[in-house]
Amino acid sequence: MNIVLIPGFWLDGASWSGVTPTLARAGHTVHTPTLPGKRPGDRALSGIGLHDHVDAVLEIVDAIASPVVLVGHSGGGSIAWAAADARPADIARVVFVDALPFPDGSVINDELPVEGDRIPLPEWNFFEAEDLVDLDDALRERFRAIAVPEPAAVATDPQTLHHEARFAVPVTVIACEFPEAMLRQAITSGAPWASELGRLEQLEIIELPTGHWPQFTKPVELGQSILAAVERA
Q1: pLDDT, tens only, 9-56
Q2: Cα gap 93→226, rounded to integer Å
């Protein structure tokens, strides 16, 4: 199986290094793209938006044999979902890592502090305590050392979805900060942010209790959770 690991904000493809060995040992081909604006030498970020990140993932999907599993961490979940919307017949499963499929017209996060055309990694006190669970001082230092600014428009561009066929794509949510019961309740109560979840034909939720960056705090366990989802695909 071809697996595309889509990094969240401030992270490049190498940020998955603790996760990929588990998938590779199982015989899967793993793709870890670094998205536009976060590649070495990228300087001007003002022209880069969410659609550029989606297009970069679609280039990979179109170049490799289907079926493909898309894995999106955090903001990368919205990129994965837009790619699944564009190529539903080619996607065997979408795995959301501490992320959710947000509906058409939503934005990833318009509350992050912007500096010009970019969003640098904020100070740690910007985040909620639940985000930082298990992210000790050494991991925080490592994260900040590899962090690259996110193009500002990626966080604020509206999600664009077109095809009802996306709801037939199987979805796994690896829930780190929030328990399965909370998500199920949100679906049942019709919470707007859970509207896409409520329309899925196949949804599984795997709990992996930790903070928002399990690729750092629990990389082996995250790899095993992704592997379990891939094998079901």
Answers
A1: 999 999 999 999 999 999 999 999 999 999 998 888 989 999 999 999
A2: 11
> 23 near 228, Cβ under 8 Å?
no
Q: What is the DSSP string of 50-79?
A: HHHHHHHHHHHHHHSPSPEEEEEETTHHHH
Is-cis flag, bond preceding 67, omega within 30?
yes
Q: What is the pLDDT of residues 166-215, one digit of tens each?
A: 999 999 999 999 999 999 999 999 999 999 999 999 999 999 999 999 99
DSSP secondary structure letters along 97-153: ES---PPTT--S-S-SPPBTTEEPPPPGGGS-GGGGTT--HHHHHHHHHH--PEEHH
Walk me through the domains of the chain, giving residue ranges and CATH numbers: 2-232 (3.40.50.1820)
- DSSP string over 158-204: PP----GGGGGS-EEEEESSS-HHHHHHHHHHT-GGGHHHHT-SSEE
User: Are 174 and 225 a contacting pair, CB within 8 Å?
Assistant: yes
CA distance 190 to 212: 25
pLDDT in tens, 103-117: 999 999 999 999 999
